[in-house]
C-alpha cells in the first residue's frame, strides 16, 4: 500500500522544515554536483528523466529532474482505481455538510462516498478497534487533542499536502494537528471561548478586565441573584485563559515537552491570586453554585451582564430572545490578552484504509476554501483557513468575527498523550483555591506533583 510520508521537521533555527523545503536543498546540491561532473567530463551531463515525481504503485518515486523549476511543482494524487470511501462525522448540521461534500467529491472524482454518523469525540476510540480490523472509516472527524495519541499508535496517516496547509491555515490549526513535527490533520474548524455580554445591561463595552470588574461591582447583588460576571471557576478549560495570560503554561516547548510543566510557575500563581480577587470583589459564590447551567439560565433571564462561553452557546441565547453580543476576552491587569484554549476539529485519514490517495484527496477537498465557506454557512463554525479570515460574510458577522479575533490569541489544547493527566489535578487545585482560599502556590504545587505522578504511571505502562 502506497503511503506518502510528508514529514515536517524542525530545522536548526527552530523553524518548520517541510518536504518541499528539503527537496529544494536536495535539488540545489544535485545541481551543483551535476555542474562539477559536467566540467570534469567535458560537458556531457546525465540524461534528463523528464522530471517525473509521480509515485508508482510500489510507493517509490522517480528521480527528480535536474531543473530547479520542478521543485515548485506540487505532487498531485488521484484516486486509486475502484476506490470507494466511508466517512465518519457528527449528525445534524455537520452531518449535512459532510453529505454535501461527499456528493460534490463524487461528482468531481467519480468516487462513491458513504457517510456514517459517528461523533467526532467517539471516532478516536472506535478507530482503535475498528481500524486494525478493517472496519473503520477511511476518513473521520476528530478533535485535535486526540491527534497525538492516534499518531503515536500508528492509527492515522500524515497529511499528504503538508506544504500547502502550512501556508494556508492558521498557526493554531497547524499546531493543534501536528505531532512530533509531522502534520496529520486536515483542519475543518476552530473554536475558542470569548466574553458574551447583555446589550441591555452593558452601556460601554469593556476592553479590560478592570472595566469588567468596575461595572460588575455596581451591578452585582447576590440577594437579588444579579451578577456582573461569571465563568466556570474550577473548569481548567476556561481558567487556562487567565493562567496563560499571566505567563503560566501546561507543557514546555509549545506544549510538546511533558517533562516541563508550567502550572505552578510565577505566572500561574499570579493567575490564582487574580481568581481570588474575582471572588472577593465580584463573584461571591462557591464553585458548586457557578455551574454551566446556572450561569446560562441567569444570562438568558437577563440577570447576568458578562458570561465566558463558546460558540456552542449562541443558538440557545438566540432561541431565548436575548439581546446579546460577543467580544474577545478583555485584557488582564498586566496588559496581556487572556490566552484561551482553542479546539481544532479536523479530518484524519485512517492508516488502515485501502485507498490512502483517494481518502487524502477527499480530506483535502473537504477543507478547501470553497467547502469550508460552505461549512460556515451551514453550521456557523469558524473556518481556520487564512483566506476566509477576510471573507466579507464572516467579517460582517459580529459574533463570528469576535470569536475569530480571540482565536488569534488562543493556545491549542495540548495534543500529546500526557494531556489527560492534567485535567483532574488542575481542576481540583482551582476548586481548592476558589472554595477553600488555599494559597495558590500550595494548591498548584500539589496539582503539578499529581500530574507528574500520573504521567510516570502512564509511561511505565501500569
Q: Can you tell me about this structure?
A:
Pfam families: SBP_bac_8. Residues 49-76 are annotated as: Disordered. The relative contact order is 0.15. Helix 2 runs antiparallel to helix 14. This protein has 18 helices and 16 strands. The longest helix is centred in the N-terminal third of the chain and has 22 residues, at 19-40. It is α/β, with parallel strands linked by helices. The protein has helices at 19-40, 92-109, 123-130, 147-152, 162-168, 171-176, 209-219, 236-245, 252-255, 266-281, 292-301, 314-319, 356-366, 369-379, 392-395, 398-407, 420-436, 440-460; strands at 9-10, 16-17, 85-89, 113-117, 139-143, 178-179, 182-183, 186-192, 194-198, 227-230, 249-251, 257-262, 304-309, 324-327, 341-349, 411-412. A hairpin with a 2-residue loop joins strand 6 and strand 7. The strands form five sheets. Strands 3, 4, 5, 8, 15 and 16 form a six-stranded mixed β-sheet that branches. It has a four-stranded mixed β-sheet with strand order 10-13-9-14. It has a two-stranded antiparallel ribbon with strand order 1-2. It folds into two domains: 85-191 and 342-412, 3-Layer(aba) Sandwich (D-Maltodextrin-Binding Protein, domain 2), CATH 3.40.190.10; 192-340 and 415-460, D-Maltodextrin-Binding Protein, domain 2 (3-Layer(aba) Sandwich). The model is unreliable at 1-74 (pLDDT under 50).
Largest sheet, described in full? Answer: 6 strands, mixed
Number of domains: 2
Give Rg in angstroms.
25 Å
CATH homology superfamily of the largest domain: Periplasmic binding protein-like II
CATH topology of the largest domain, by name, is D-Maltodextrin-Binding Protein, domain 2
Amount of helix: 40-55%
Q: Could you give the distance between the termini?
A: 35 Å
Q: Outline, from the CA principal axes?
A: globular
Strand content: 5-15%
DSSP helical segment count:
18
The CATH architecture of the largest domain comes to 3-Layer(aba) Sandwich
Helical/strand content category: alpha/beta
How many E strands? 16
Unreliable stretches (pLDDT < 50, length at least 5) are 1-74
What's the rounded overall pLDDT mean?
Answer: 86
The CATH class designation of the largest domain is Alpha Beta
Amino acid at each position: 500500500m502506497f503511503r506518502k510520508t510528508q514529514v515536517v521537521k524542525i530545522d536548526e533555527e527552530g523553524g518548520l522544515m517541510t518536504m518541499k523545503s528539503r527537496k529544494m536543498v536536495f535539488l540545489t546540491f544535485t545541481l551543483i554536483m551535476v555542474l562539477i561532473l559536467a566540467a570534469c567530463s567535458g560537458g556531457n551531463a546525465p540524461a534528463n528523466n523528464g522530471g517525473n515525481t509521480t509515485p508508482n504503485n510500489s510507493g517509490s518515486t522517480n528521480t527528480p529532474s535536474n531543473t530547479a523549476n520542478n521543485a515548485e511543482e506540487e505532487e498531485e494524487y488521484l484516486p486509486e482505481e475502484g476506490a470507494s470511501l466511508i466517512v465518519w462525522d457528527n449528525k445534524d448540521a455537520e452531518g449535512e455538510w459532510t453529505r454535501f461534500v461527499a456528493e460534490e467529491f463524487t461528482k468531481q472524482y467519480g468516487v462513491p462516498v458513504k457517510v456514517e454518523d459517528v461523533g467526532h469525540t467517539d471516532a478516536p476510540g472506535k478507530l482503535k478497534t475498528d481500524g486494525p480490523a478493517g472496519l473503520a472509516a477511511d476518513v473521520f472527524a476528530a478533535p485535535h487533542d486526540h491527534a497525538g495519541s492516534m499518531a503515536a499508535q500508528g492509527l492515522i496517516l500524515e497529511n499528504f499536502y503538508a506544504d500547502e496547509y502550512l501556508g494556508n491555515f492558521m498557526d493554531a490549526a497547524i499546531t493543534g494537528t501536528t505531532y512530533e513535527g509531522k502534520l496529520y490533520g486536515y483542519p475543518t474548524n476552530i473554536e475558542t471561548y470569548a466574553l458574551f455580554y447583555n446589550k441591555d445591561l452593558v452601556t460601554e463595552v469593556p476592553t479590560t478586565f478592570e472595566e469588567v470588574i468596575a461595572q460588575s461591582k455596581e451591578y452585582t447583588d447576590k440577594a437579588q441573584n444579579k451578577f456582573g460576571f461569571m465563568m466556570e471557576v474550577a473548569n481548567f478549560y476556561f481558567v487556562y485563559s487567565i493562567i496563560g495570560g499571566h505567563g503560566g503554561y501546561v507543557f514546555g516547548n509549545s506544549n510538546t515537552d511533558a517533562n516541563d510543566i508550567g502550572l505552578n510557575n510565577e505566572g500561574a500563581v499570579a493567575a490564582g491570586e487574580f481568581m481570588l480577587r474575582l471572588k472577593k470583589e465580584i463573584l461571591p459564590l462557591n464553585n458548586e453554585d457557578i455551574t454551566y447551567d446556572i450561569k446560562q439560565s441567569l444570562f438568558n433571564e437577563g440577570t447576568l451582564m458578562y458570561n465566558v462561553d463558546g460558540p456552542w452557546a449562541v443558538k440557545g441565547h438566540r432561541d431565548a430572545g436575548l439581546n446579546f453580543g460577543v467580544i474577545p476576552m478583555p485584557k488582564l491587569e498586566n496588559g496581556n490578552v487572556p490566552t484561551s484554549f482553542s479546539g481544532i476539529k479536523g479530518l484524519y485519514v485512517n492508516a488502515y484504509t485501502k485507498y490512502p490517495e483517494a481518502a487524502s484527496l477527499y480530506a483535502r477537498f473537504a477543507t478547501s476554501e470553497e467547502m469550508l465557506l460552505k461549512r460556515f454557512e451551514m453550521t456557523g463554525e469558524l473556518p481556520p483557513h487564512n483566506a476566509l479570515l477576510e471573507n466579507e460574510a464572516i467579517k460582517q458577522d459580529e459574533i463570528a468575527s469576535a470569536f475569530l479575533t480571540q482565536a488569534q490569541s488562543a493556545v491549542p489544547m495540548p495534543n500529546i498523550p500526557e494531556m489527560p493527566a492534567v485535567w483532574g489535578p488542575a481542576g481540583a487545585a482551582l476548586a481548592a483555591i476558589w472554595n477553600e482560599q488555599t494559597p495558590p502556590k500550595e494548591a498548584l504545587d500539589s496539582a503539578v506533583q499529581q500530574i507528574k505522578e500520573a504521567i510516570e504511571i502512564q509511561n511505565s505502562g501500569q
